[in-house]
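RECORD TYPE: protein structure
NAME: Arylsulfatase
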Amino acid sequence: MKLLFALTSSLLTLAVSYANAQQITGTPGAPDATTTLDGRYLPNPPAPFGGEIGLDARDSKPYWPPQVVPPKGAPNILLIITDDAGYGVAGTFGGVIPTPALDRVAQAGLRYTQFHSTALCSPTRAALITGRNHHSVGYGVVSEQATGYPGYDSIIGIDNATVAEILKQNGYATSWFGKEHNTPTFQYSSAGPFDQWPSGMGFDYFYGFMGGDTNQWQPYLFENHTQVFPWVGNPKYNLITDEADKAIDHIRQLDAAAPDKPFFVYYAPGATHAPHHPTPEWIDKFKGKFDMGWNAMRDQIFANQKRLGVVPQNAQLTPWPDDLPKWDSLDADSKKLFARQAEVFAAYVAYSDNEIGRVIQAVDDLGKLDNTLVIYIEGDNGTSAEGSTLGTPSELLSIQGINVPVADQLKFYDAWGSDRTYPHMSVAWSWAFDTPFKWTKQVASHFGGTRQGMAMAWPARIKDAGGIRTQFHHMIDIVPTILEATRIPAPAMVNGVAQKPIEGVSMAYSWDKANANAPSTRHTQYFEMFGNRAIYHDGWIASTTPPAAPWLMGLGKMPDVVNGYKWELYNLNDDYSQANDLAATSPDKLREMQDMFLMEAAKYNVFPLDNDVLERTVTPRPSTTAGRTTFTYTGALSGLPTGNAPSIVNKSYTITADIEIPQSGADGMLVTEGGRFGGYGLYVLKNKPVFVYNLLGLEHFRWEGTDTLKPGKHTIVFDFKSDGPGMGKGGTGVLTVDGSKVATQQVQHTIPFLLPWDETFDVGSDTRTPVEDKDYQAPFAFTGAIDRLTVQLN
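PREDICTED:
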């Protein structure tokens, strides 16, 4: 009885505290009444009915619950993050690529010169939207490499509510545009569950693509939970413009419907992650702009950075690495190719910034920019080294350790950046675009992988326009900054679940000019990715030396992850760029920092350490395909994501299609996965059965029947016996029709471990790019009937 009384008493106390914290405007119970929330417990308990109920409505008094609104004056939030862009990319931070939209934010507000990511895309984004370290929310690596440990399972738990969920329940309109790399790959399908999709993370509306990147000409695109294909029939389509158009229209619709309701727009274009897909007119703007080469460009960026004051005057340009060639050592063909790669990358940067500028201008056109907190983060990690030392016409090649010679790449020179390529640039450009630092994306131990240019503006509040701030901060600090700006507290409980503490600290103290040089409120921050690690504390950073370059894509031999790494030590108060290693002269300080890393790592789910890259990519994960070897489909279907499709990679398999050919004959796709940059297709072409295996665009293997299929029912089988086990092994394929062999061929190699992640498994049509351009164009719908299609994995 005493326990029941105590519980009732505490609930009454909680209800009183809610009532005391709320601010109600208008007449209580009237349709226009509003209320703020206490915010610590979301959602609020239902308010008691405040009217009167009699037997007759004429003797009763209605009462409407008040509409939830944020605190008075709470700003709109426009949170922008681009992709794979290091500190030296944007002109705003000394780069040679103009970024006027980022300039606009910086000139209206502040530039931050010591702001950090996690060194990899979806981990950074998980930290950004939750305010917690990436391992704390299951994103120690990207979802495609998730493993079954709390820090690495790619699941943002219900005890880690996102900033969108918090703002939404406090009266904001919330939306997400662009890259969505925080849903586990094994939950992409229409079967869900959707709790890890944007709709389950507090976003009212989502328009964007799933995964690390996508073809910007024919993207793997969703509106909320539904795949959409706006590029069909639109030869000039590009996603960079489309998502800006969608965001602008959405903001205008919100203003028309509820002009006083503040918005939170999370805008995350795919640029400048590969594939580099700007429009031709933007590529033309940069013709010849990179003929000086990466070494001269690096010197120019460094000089610009000092002139702008975005690096200290005593900062040093770190040495050029011995294992990357200097520009002057290259032959003419190499210089021609590499310059073209940089032209297209720069065009992609500038094109994306231009479209971001359109979104910012749309907010201004509505008269809302003065009370909008704009946070523009250039890059979710350093510039990507995943294009290999040579660059590549297809990222699917380089990411699987396949390098294409310069002479063969030059065949794509005029098409570079078009939908005929999926291109990336040489690592040497990536290193130079991370000036003045060492290393690149994937390397969490050095600022080449983690230092991002960031600008923040809120004209109604931030008055030191054009100011520079040097405090040390991290992605996890954005959420508490937003919450302080909106005067909304971090909740203790959301949807009945107690919340883990937000681990970031607010940056709002830095907004006032009087605090321009105030000490950072972030005192300690760990970093870890693929075993490379670092620990920052009050101006010092201890960092491991990467034992293998990230452009080796995990194919190099790795040391013992716990004890096999060399450590470096830097005093950032005197050494902005990590140029002078003090490990040998300050061993006691280094040991202190190493011990601190162990404590922070234990606190934030970093263990177990794992420096394997490749094996984590192919490790089994929960999905609807786990443990299945037989997959049967009836009729046509399209858009099944790779994580929910039968995987033929590195195994034997049999595809059986029971079909009916009409009297008029038939054409069309029976089953396909992948497309122009790798994959397979079994189809009927001019009444003849064809199977094509596209080896990452390097070679096409073709099995074709010589006789036409007569009207009526047929069974077409493609059987492949692998020479495995092992990655990329060859094998023998046999195509049969109604039990008779019609084609047999042996192949020496197959795709090592990844089919295109932005293509889908389709039966009866091909929804994106063709596996063989010479034979057909998508959608190539089958004009006969598919009674049954079976894939048997052996």
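COMMENT: The longest strand covers residues 712-722.
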